[in-house]
Design goal:
single chain; alpha+beta; 4-stranded antiparallel beta sheet; globular
Amino acid sequence: MNKVVAGFSKLSKEEKINWIAKEYFTNPQEAIELLKKYWNSDENLQKLHDEFIENTISNFYIPLGVAPNFLINGKNSTIPMAIEESSVVAAAAKSAKFWSTRGGFKATVIDTEKIGQVHFIFKGDSSKLNSFFNETKVKFFTNTENITKNMQKRGGGILDIILKDKTDLIPNYFQLHATFETKDSMGANFINSCLEQFAKTLKEEAQSHELFSETEKDIQVVMSILSNYVPNCLVRAEVSCPIADLEEKHIQNPQEFAERFVQAVQIAEIEPFRAVTHNKGIMNGVDAVVLATGNDFRAVEAGIHAYASRNGQYSSLSHAKIENDIFTFWLEIPLALGTVGGLTSLHPLVKLSLEMLEKPSAKELMKIVAVAGLAQNFAALRSLTTTGIQDGHMKMHLNNILNQFEANEEERIVIRKHFKHHVVSHSAVVDYIENLRK
């Protein structure tokens, strides 16, 4: 069957759906009905969603939940979280409640510097290129004034531009490495516009510069693009309390718990196989808030995982210590976030999420997101070092299994009662449902 289609993007949404249904599904009408079931009944709202991306055929829903009782720097917050994984929101809320009576979370923004680069090839004398750059550096700033003036009014703009020689890695390869402050916007469009102007200035100024020979004047710009690795756009989140204060229902021996917890973190610091799963737990919290607030979680993921490898081996993003009978648990992560621009002003639920967070600045949102990551990590490590992770997770997952088997209300009551006192596993639940239905 030939599934190649010409001019697909020019088809109407109905035509796109009809083509897909006909080409890929044994029951085309059923597929069409399912896709349309997830359309919004409000036509204007659906049109808004249709225009976020290209070739839209439906909406793909992810639950939006909330985790209350977060005490952050002395202020209470309820954090919105968009995620499809069971137990994440419950775990975050549990951590929030635990720490709300033990001093809460402390969060600090260390820096907010963002990065962009112009990558280019220069086949000539690098000392001449250095002299040329130093002489013309000011023009990179003046030629972008029309782009930066509004950002400068808000206290942002271009921080610096340096020339980097990378010829030891690729022949004739150089960079213009620029740093930016973008205030409350994530700043991708702003940064990329500045970089494209840098590239234009670089080529034009080189053409007329007396230092260069004819060959040297022909600078080849490969690309101009921001970096999602922002090691100097850092935020720190932390919890601490006397070891004795850690005691609760599942922590009968706080000293033993604290020591085991620190050991678990140390293992993630030195063992990459553990570190990846450990950090994935942190990202459960981070991504859920990033997504709920209309930010780019793929960019955040890429930057944070690169940061976890900055010392040459992938390692834990969080750390823990015991000092003078005080337990301290913290993380530092790079976060390039925005609270203006992009989806923040378009997506109704993003606007709602930001309002729930009392319209935070980008710096305030960095703190909230880092705290959500730390809370999630604490919940996971507390489970792993006490009752084990599967007990709580599978009980939360029970609903998904019941939905999968379309259990009715009467069956749900019986099944939930049974698994209050029995280990939940997929096979155990399936066996119990089958026996119940016999």
